[in-house]
């Protein structure tokens, strides 16, 4: 199975198949509202606004598995992202990214691009860059500022 074979549920409750993003460059990121890295929402939104017309999409997946830094419900998380960071890219309902309950999409992403901890997500704001054909190109550590991904993004666009 590949990236386009998976689906996830957006904040509005609608299931979205990843095949909807065929032909786009995609960033998939696990997020948290109460994390020291939460300001990355600002940089992610800036990248999205700058490149969305050229085919960039960003898919945010809230997760509460790291120090319980996203304990709120989906509605509150969605409001927080919009009010505090003006997030307009696609946000999905909260998921697990590690363990036996990890979302199937994340099981796939972790196996396609291993990180410092192998097949495990290290922390909030781990970012996966996917090309227009659905290939996982690179995994970026949580501490990598999204702006540092810009050269790779423009190469793929």
From TrEMBL:
Protein name: Glutathione peroxidase
One Gene Ontology term of the molecular function aspect: peroxidase activity
PROSITE patterns, sorted: GLUTATHIONE_PEROXID_1, GLUTATHIONE_PEROXID_2, GLUTATHIONE_PEROXID_3
Family annotation (InterPro entries): Glutathione_peroxidase, GPX_AS, GPX_CS, Thioredoxin-like_sf
SUPFAM superfamilies: Thioredoxin-like
Organism: Anaerocolumna cellulosilytica
Hydrolase is among the record's keywords: no
Keywords: Oxidoreductase, Peroxidase
Cross-referenced CDD domains: GSH_Peroxidase
Protein family membership: Belongs to the glutathione peroxidase family.
Pfam families xrefs: GSHPx
GO terms classed as biological process: cellular response to oxidative stress
Keyword match Oxidoreductase: yes
């Amino acid at each position: 199975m590949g990236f386009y074979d998976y689906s996830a549920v957006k904040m509005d409750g609608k299931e979205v198949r990843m095949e909807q993003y065929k032909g786009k460059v995609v960033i998939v990121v696990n997020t948290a509202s109460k994390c020291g890295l939460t300001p990355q929402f600002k940089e992610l939104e800036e990248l999205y606004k700058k490149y969305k017309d050229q085919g960039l999409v960003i898919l945010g997946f809230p997760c509460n598995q790291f120090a319980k830094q996203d304990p709120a419900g989906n509605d509150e998380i969605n409001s927080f992202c919009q009010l505090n960071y003006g997030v307009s890219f696609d946000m999905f309902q909260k998921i697990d990214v590690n363990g036996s309950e990890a979302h199937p999409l994340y099981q796939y992403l972790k196996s396609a691009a291993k990180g410092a901890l192998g097949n495990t997500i290290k922390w909030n704001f781990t970012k996966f860059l996917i090309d227009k054909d659905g290939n996982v190109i690179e995994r970026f550590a949580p501490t990598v500022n999204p702006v540092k991904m810009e050269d790779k993004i423009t190469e793929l666009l």
